[in-house]
Amino acid sequence: MPTFGEIGIGDALTNTFSLWGPAGLPPALVEVLAGAVRTAMQDPVFVELAATRLAYTLRFRPGSVLPAELDALDGEWAPRLRGAPRPG
User: Fold this and answer.
1) What local confidence, expressed as pLDDT, does residue 40 receive?
2) Which of 24, 43, 63, 74 is most buried, by CB atoms within 10 Å?
3) Residue 42, phi then psi, degrees to nearest 5
4) Radius of gyration, CA atoms only, the chain
5) Residue 62 and residue 35: Cα distance in Å, rounded?
6) Close Cβ partners of 76 (under 8 Å, ≥ 6 residues apart)
């Protein structure tokens, strides 16, 4: 199987994990949930497992920046993937 670089996609891949809730969630509850996620992401054991077992670098991002970041990822990857050869 060829690598991403060999088929012209590139050699870096980004993974994004997000926590979503229903529209209209009270801002105070959003802050409680965000604080819990932020706290979990600072736990040394969790950070170490993410780094060593998954090769992930954890970075907390507030929900307010998520739409723009997802749009940017789509803008970067969509053209690369559309131009990639398909196996078979």
Assistant:
1) 93
2) 63
3) -100, -5
4) 17
5) 10
6) none
Q: Is the pLDDT assigned to residue 83 strictly greater than 90?
A: no
Report angle CA 67, 71, 76 to the nearest 5 degrees.
150
Decide: 9 and 78 in contact? Cβ < 8 Å: no
pLDDT for position 11: 66
Amino acid at 29: L
The answer for residues whose C-beta is within 8 angstroms of residue 5's C-beta and 6 or more apart is 11
| Per-residue pLDDT reduced to its tens digit, 13-63 | 677 888 889 999 999 999 999 999 999 999 999 999 999 998 888 899 888
